[in-house]
Protein backbone atom coordinates (compact mmCIF):
# COMPACT_ATOMS: atom_id res chain seq x y z
CA UNK A 1 0.00 0.00 0.00
CA UNK A 2 1.17 3.51 -0.72
CA UNK A 3 2.50 5.74 2.00
CA UNK A 4 0.85 8.97 3.06
CA UNK A 5 1.79 11.78 0.63
CA UNK A 6 4.16 14.42 1.92
CA UNK A 7 2.97 17.76 3.22
CA UNK A 8 4.24 19.47 0.07
CA UNK A 9 1.91 17.49 -2.14
CA UNK A 10 -1.30 19.34 -3.00
CA UNK A 11 -3.57 16.32 -3.40
CA UNK A 12 -3.94 12.77 -2.20
CA UNK A 13 -2.19 10.41 -4.56
CA UNK A 14 -4.47 8.03 -6.50
CA UNK A 15 -2.58 5.08 -5.01
CA UNK A 16 -3.48 6.20 -1.52
CA UNK A 17 -7.16 6.47 -2.42
CA UNK A 18 -7.11 3.00 -3.98
CA UNK A 19 -5.51 1.64 -0.82
CA UNK A 20 -8.21 3.22 1.34
CA UNK A 21 -10.87 1.76 -0.94
CA UNK A 22 -9.36 -1.70 -0.33
CA UNK A 23 -9.58 -1.13 3.42
CA UNK A 24 -13.18 0.00 3.01
CA UNK A 25 -13.99 -3.26 1.24
CA UNK A 26 -12.42 -5.21 4.10
CA UNK A 27 -14.51 -3.27 6.62
CA UNK A 28 -17.67 -3.78 4.59
CA UNK A 29 -16.91 -7.49 4.30
CA UNK A 30 -16.63 -7.75 8.08
CA UNK A 31 -19.98 -5.97 8.47
CA UNK A 32 -21.53 -8.32 5.93
CA UNK A 33 -19.89 -11.65 6.85
CA UNK A 34 -19.05 -11.32 10.55
CA UNK A 35 -20.88 -14.58 11.30
CA UNK A 36 -18.67 -16.50 8.86
CA UNK A 37 -15.34 -18.07 9.88
CA UNK A 38 -13.35 -14.93 9.09
CA UNK A 39 -9.87 -14.16 10.31
CA UNK A 40 -7.29 -11.53 9.40
CA UNK A 41 -5.34 -13.78 6.95
CA UNK A 42 -8.57 -14.55 5.08
CA UNK A 43 -9.48 -10.85 4.96
CA UNK A 44 -5.98 -9.99 3.74
CA UNK A 45 -6.09 -12.60 0.98
CA UNK A 46 -9.33 -11.08 -0.26
CA UNK A 47 -7.56 -7.81 -1.07
CA UNK A 48 -4.14 -9.34 -1.93
CA UNK A 49 -2.27 -7.98 1.09
CA UNK A 50 -0.26 -9.56 3.85
CA UNK A 51 -2.06 -9.97 7.18
CA UNK A 52 0.43 -7.77 9.01
CA UNK A 53 0.22 -4.98 6.45
CA UNK A 54 -3.58 -5.09 6.46
CA UNK A 55 -3.68 -4.87 10.25
CA UNK A 56 -1.35 -1.87 10.35
CA UNK A 57 -3.10 0.08 7.60
CA UNK A 58 -6.60 -0.76 8.81
CA UNK A 59 -5.78 0.51 12.30
CA UNK A 60 -4.21 3.61 10.79
CA UNK A 61 -7.39 4.32 8.82
CA UNK A 62 -10.11 3.28 11.30
CA UNK A 63 -8.47 3.45 14.70
CA UNK A 64 -8.58 -0.30 15.46
CA UNK A 65 -7.29 -3.50 13.92
CA UNK A 66 -9.47 -5.64 11.63
CA UNK A 67 -9.49 -8.33 14.33
CA UNK A 68 -10.75 -5.84 16.92
CA UNK A 69 -13.40 -4.55 14.51
CA UNK A 70 -14.56 -8.10 13.75
CA UNK A 71 -14.81 -8.96 17.45
CA UNK A 72 -16.72 -5.76 18.17
CA UNK A 73 -19.18 -6.48 15.37
CA UNK A 74 -19.77 -10.03 16.65
CA UNK A 75 -20.17 -8.88 20.25
CA UNK A 76 -22.65 -6.14 19.31
CA UNK A 77 -24.78 -8.64 17.44
CA UNK A 78 -24.52 -11.24 20.20
CA UNK A 79 -25.55 -8.82 22.94
CA UNK A 80 -28.51 -7.65 20.88
CA UNK A 81 -29.66 -11.24 20.34
CA UNK A 82 -29.26 -12.05 24.01
CA UNK A 83 -31.42 -9.07 24.93
CA UNK A 84 -34.13 -9.40 22.32
CA UNK A 85 -34.48 -13.12 21.59
CA UNK A 86 -35.10 -16.38 23.40
CA UNK A 87 -31.97 -17.98 21.96
CA UNK A 88 -29.58 -19.77 24.27
CA UNK A 89 -26.03 -18.49 24.70
CA UNK A 90 -24.76 -21.42 22.65
CA UNK A 91 -27.16 -20.64 19.79
CA UNK A 92 -26.17 -16.99 19.88
CA UNK A 93 -22.50 -17.93 19.71
CA UNK A 94 -22.99 -19.93 16.54
CA UNK A 95 -25.09 -17.19 14.96
CA UNK A 96 -22.43 -14.53 15.35
CA UNK A 97 -19.36 -16.56 14.45
CA UNK A 98 -18.15 -17.83 17.85
CA UNK A 99 -17.91 -21.59 18.25
CA UNK A 100 -17.92 -21.99 22.05
CA UNK A 101 -19.65 -19.94 24.78
CA UNK A 102 -16.33 -19.03 26.33
CA UNK A 103 -15.30 -17.44 23.02
CA UNK A 104 -18.10 -14.93 23.60
CA UNK A 105 -17.70 -14.49 27.35
CA UNK A 106 -14.16 -13.14 27.41
CA UNK A 107 -14.51 -10.61 24.55
CA UNK A 108 -17.71 -9.26 26.12
CA UNK A 109 -15.90 -8.75 29.44
CA UNK A 110 -13.04 -6.99 27.68
CA UNK A 111 -15.38 -4.79 25.65
CA UNK A 112 -17.32 -3.76 28.76
CA UNK A 113 -19.36 -0.59 28.58
CA UNK A 114 -17.87 0.52 25.26
CA UNK A 115 -20.01 -2.00 23.38
CA UNK A 116 -23.00 -1.81 25.72
CA UNK A 117 -23.30 1.94 25.18
CA UNK A 118 -23.78 1.34 21.45
CA UNK A 119 -26.76 -0.99 21.99
CA UNK A 120 -30.40 -0.12 22.68
CA UNK A 121 -31.52 -0.97 26.23
CA UNK A 122 -34.27 -3.49 26.83
CA UNK A 123 -37.56 -2.09 25.56
CA UNK A 124 -36.00 -0.30 22.60
CA UNK A 125 -36.60 3.28 21.55
CA UNK A 126 -39.73 5.28 21.08
CA UNK A 127 -41.77 5.30 17.87
CA UNK A 128 -39.92 2.25 16.58
CA UNK A 129 -36.47 3.85 16.81
CA UNK A 130 -33.61 2.15 18.62
CA UNK A 131 -32.99 3.87 21.93
CA UNK A 132 -29.33 4.26 20.95
CA UNK A 133 -30.39 6.56 18.13
CA UNK A 134 -32.62 8.45 20.54
CA UNK A 135 -29.68 9.07 22.86
CA UNK A 136 -27.50 10.32 20.02
CA UNK A 137 -30.16 12.85 19.09
CA UNK A 138 -29.61 14.77 22.33
CA UNK A 139 -30.46 14.70 26.03
CA UNK A 140 -34.21 14.67 26.54
CA UNK A 141 -34.24 17.32 29.24
CA UNK A 142 -32.09 19.66 27.18
CA UNK A 143 -32.51 19.51 23.43
CA UNK A 144 -36.00 17.99 23.35
CA UNK A 145 -37.33 20.34 26.01
CA UNK A 146 -36.06 23.30 23.99
CA UNK A 147 -37.78 21.87 20.91
CA UNK A 148 -41.04 21.63 22.84
CA UNK A 149 -40.72 25.24 23.96
CA UNK A 150 -40.09 26.34 20.38
CA UNK A 151 -43.08 24.30 19.24
CA UNK A 152 -45.24 25.93 21.88
CA UNK A 153 -44.07 29.36 20.79
CA UNK A 154 -44.95 28.66 17.16
CA UNK A 155 -48.46 27.64 18.24
CA UNK A 156 -48.90 31.02 19.87
CA UNK A 157 -47.71 32.93 16.83
CA UNK A 158 -49.73 30.86 14.33
CA UNK A 159 -46.71 29.50 12.47
CA UNK A 160 -47.70 25.82 12.51
CA UNK A 161 -49.07 25.91 8.96
CA UNK A 162 -45.76 26.68 7.28
CA UNK A 163 -45.50 24.62 4.09
CA UNK A 164 -41.90 23.36 3.86
CA UNK A 165 -40.46 20.28 2.21
CA UNK A 166 -37.09 18.67 1.58
CA UNK A 167 -36.20 19.73 -1.95
CA UNK A 168 -32.70 18.28 -2.39
CA UNK A 169 -29.99 16.38 -0.59
CA UNK A 170 -26.36 16.39 -1.68
CA UNK A 171 -23.92 13.54 -2.21
CA UNK A 172 -20.35 13.89 -3.48
CA UNK A 173 -19.14 12.07 -6.57
CA UNK A 174 -15.71 11.24 -7.94
CA UNK A 175 -16.79 10.05 -11.39
CA UNK A 176 -19.98 11.59 -12.81
CA UNK A 177 -20.47 8.91 -15.46
CA UNK A 178 -20.11 6.09 -12.92
CA UNK A 179 -22.56 7.89 -10.63
CA UNK A 180 -25.05 8.17 -13.48
CA UNK A 181 -24.71 4.45 -14.13
CA UNK A 182 -25.57 3.78 -10.49
CA UNK A 183 -28.36 6.26 -9.81
CA UNK A 184 -29.92 6.39 -13.29
CA UNK A 185 -29.33 2.93 -14.72
CA UNK A 186 -29.33 0.77 -11.57
CA UNK A 187 -31.69 2.65 -9.24
CA UNK A 188 -33.92 3.98 -12.02
CA UNK A 189 -33.67 7.67 -11.09
CA UNK A 190 -34.31 10.23 -13.78
CA UNK A 191 -31.71 12.87 -14.64
CA UNK A 192 -33.14 16.36 -14.13
CA UNK A 193 -30.07 18.49 -14.63
CA UNK A 194 -26.46 18.03 -15.74
CA UNK A 195 -24.22 21.08 -15.69
CA UNK A 196 -20.47 21.52 -15.91
CA UNK A 197 -17.91 19.40 -17.69
CA UNK A 198 -15.33 16.74 -17.02
CA UNK A 199 -15.27 15.75 -13.36
CA UNK A 200 -16.65 19.19 -12.40
CA UNK A 201 -20.26 18.30 -13.11
CA UNK A 202 -23.35 18.79 -10.96
CA UNK A 203 -25.94 16.07 -11.58
CA UNK A 204 -29.48 16.36 -10.28
CA UNK A 205 -31.36 13.06 -10.15
CA UNK A 206 -34.47 11.79 -8.45
CA UNK A 207 -37.20 9.14 -8.39
CA UNK A 208 -39.62 9.52 -11.33
CA UNK A 209 -42.70 9.48 -9.08
CA UNK A 210 -41.33 12.23 -6.81
CA UNK A 211 -40.54 15.15 -9.11
CA UNK A 212 -40.00 17.56 -6.23
CA UNK A 213 -37.44 15.40 -4.41
CA UNK A 214 -33.88 15.59 -5.72
CA UNK A 215 -30.42 14.24 -5.06
CA UNK A 216 -27.60 16.50 -6.26
CA UNK A 217 -24.36 14.69 -7.04
CA UNK A 218 -21.57 17.23 -6.84
CA UNK A 219 -17.75 17.48 -7.02
CA UNK A 220 -16.83 17.63 -3.32
CA UNK A 221 -13.90 20.03 -3.56
CA UNK A 222 -15.46 22.57 -5.94
CA UNK A 223 -16.10 24.99 -3.08
CA UNK A 224 -13.27 27.56 -3.20
CA UNK A 225 -13.48 27.85 0.59
CA UNK A 226 -12.14 24.30 1.02
CA UNK A 227 -8.42 24.29 1.77
CA UNK A 228 -5.96 21.77 0.35
CA UNK A 229 -5.77 19.93 3.67
CA UNK A 230 -9.57 19.81 3.90
CA UNK A 231 -9.78 18.55 0.32
CA UNK A 232 -7.34 15.77 1.10
CA UNK A 233 -9.30 14.82 4.20
CA UNK A 234 -12.56 14.72 2.24
CA UNK A 235 -11.00 12.55 -0.47
CA UNK A 236 -9.64 10.10 2.11
CA UNK A 237 -12.93 9.91 4.02
CA UNK A 238 -14.82 9.21 0.79
CA UNK A 239 -12.36 6.46 -0.09
CA UNK A 240 -12.74 5.01 3.43
CA UNK A 241 -16.52 5.12 3.13
CA UNK A 242 -17.01 7.40 6.15
CA UNK A 243 -18.01 10.68 4.50
CA UNK A 244 -21.63 10.62 3.28
CA UNK A 245 -24.75 8.47 3.20
CA UNK A 246 -28.39 8.52 2.18
CA UNK A 247 -31.46 6.51 3.15
CA UNK A 248 -33.92 5.46 0.43
CA UNK A 249 -37.12 3.42 0.67
CA UNK A 250 -38.96 0.93 -1.53
CA UNK A 251 -42.11 -1.17 -1.35
CA UNK A 252 -40.23 -4.02 -3.05
CA UNK A 253 -36.81 -4.13 -1.40
CA UNK A 254 -35.80 -7.48 -2.88
CA UNK A 255 -36.54 -6.36 -6.43
CA UNK A 256 -34.47 -3.20 -5.97
CA UNK A 257 -31.61 -5.16 -4.45
CA UNK A 258 -31.62 -7.68 -7.30
CA UNK A 259 -31.66 -4.92 -9.90
CA UNK A 260 -28.78 -2.95 -8.39
CA UNK A 261 -26.72 -6.09 -7.77
CA UNK A 262 -27.26 -7.25 -11.36
CA UNK A 263 -26.17 -3.87 -12.71
CA UNK A 264 -22.74 -4.38 -11.16
CA UNK A 265 -22.02 -0.68 -10.62
CA UNK A 266 -22.17 -0.59 -6.81
CA UNK A 267 -20.66 -2.66 -4.03
CA UNK A 268 -23.00 -4.75 -1.89
CA UNK A 269 -22.62 -3.80 1.76
CA UNK A 270 -25.55 -5.78 3.11
CA UNK A 271 -28.13 -8.08 1.57
CA UNK A 272 -31.80 -7.58 2.56
CA UNK A 273 -31.86 -8.20 6.30
CA UNK A 274 -34.44 -8.05 9.10
CA UNK A 275 -32.98 -5.70 11.67
CA UNK A 276 -33.48 -6.05 15.43
CA UNK A 277 -35.33 -2.73 15.63
CA UNK A 278 -38.07 -3.94 13.29
CA UNK A 279 -37.08 -2.69 9.85
CA UNK A 280 -35.83 -4.61 6.84
CA UNK A 281 -33.15 -3.03 4.68
CA UNK A 282 -30.13 -3.52 2.46
CA UNK A 283 -27.11 -1.35 1.67
CA UNK A 284 -24.76 -0.55 -1.19
CA UNK A 285 -21.74 1.62 -1.80
CA UNK A 286 -22.14 3.92 -4.77
CA UNK A 287 -19.10 4.46 -7.04
CA UNK A 288 -17.88 7.33 -4.84
CA UNK A 289 -17.98 5.23 -1.65
CA UNK A 290 -21.17 6.80 -0.24
CA UNK A 291 -23.43 4.52 1.77
CA UNK A 292 -26.80 4.01 0.10
CA UNK A 293 -29.19 2.21 2.47
CA UNK A 294 -32.61 1.13 1.21
CA UNK A 295 -35.43 0.33 3.60
CA UNK A 296 -38.57 -1.74 3.02
CA UNK A 297 -41.79 0.25 3.44
CA UNK A 298 -45.45 -0.74 3.15
Cα-atom Rg, whole angstroms? 22 Å
Mean pLDDT: 82
Topology pattern, helix = H, strand = E? HHHHHHHHHEHEEEHEHEEE
N-C termini distance: 46 Å
CATH architecture of the largest domain: Roll
The structural domain count equals 2
Strand order in the largest sheet: 1-4-3-2
Q: If you consult CATH, what is the topology of the largest domain?
A: 2,3-Dihydroxybiphenyl 1,2-Dioxygenase, domain 1
Q: Given this structure, which CATH class of the largest domain is correct?
A: Alpha Beta
Strand content: 15-25%
Per the principal axes of the C-alpha atoms, what is the gross shape? Answer: globular
CATH superfamily of the largest domain: 2,3-Dihydroxybiphenyl 1,2-Dioxygenase, domain 1
Overall helicity:
40-55%
Structural class label: alpha/beta
User: Poorly predicted ranges (pLDDT <50, ≥5 residues)?
Assistant: 2-10, 113-149
Number of helices: 12
How many E-type strands?
Answer: 8
Main sheet specs:
4 strands, mixed
Would you give an account of this structure?
- There is one protein chain.
- The chain has 298 residues and is of the alpha/beta class.
- The protein has helices at residues 14-33, 40-46, 51-62, 66-84, 89-96, 101-111, 113-116, 131-136, 140-157, 176-186, 228-240, 253-263; strands spanning 168-172, 190-197, 200-206, 214-218, 245-250, 267-274, 280-285, 291-296.
- It has two domains: 14-116, Homeodomain-like (Arc Repressor Mutant, subunit A, Orthogonal Bundle); 168-296, 2,3-Dihydroxybiphenyl 1,2-Dioxygenase, domain 1 (Roll), CATH 3.10.180.10.
- Helices cover 47% and strands 17% of the residues.
- The termini are far apart.
Amino acid sequence: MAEEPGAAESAVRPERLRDLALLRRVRDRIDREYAQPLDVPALARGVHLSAGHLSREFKRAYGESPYSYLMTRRIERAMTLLRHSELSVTDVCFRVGFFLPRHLQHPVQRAGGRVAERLPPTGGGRAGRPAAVHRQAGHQTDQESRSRRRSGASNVTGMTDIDIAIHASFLPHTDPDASLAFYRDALGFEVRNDVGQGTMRWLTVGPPRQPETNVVLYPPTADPGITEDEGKMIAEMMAKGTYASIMLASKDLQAVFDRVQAAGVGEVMQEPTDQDWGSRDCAFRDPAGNTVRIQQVD
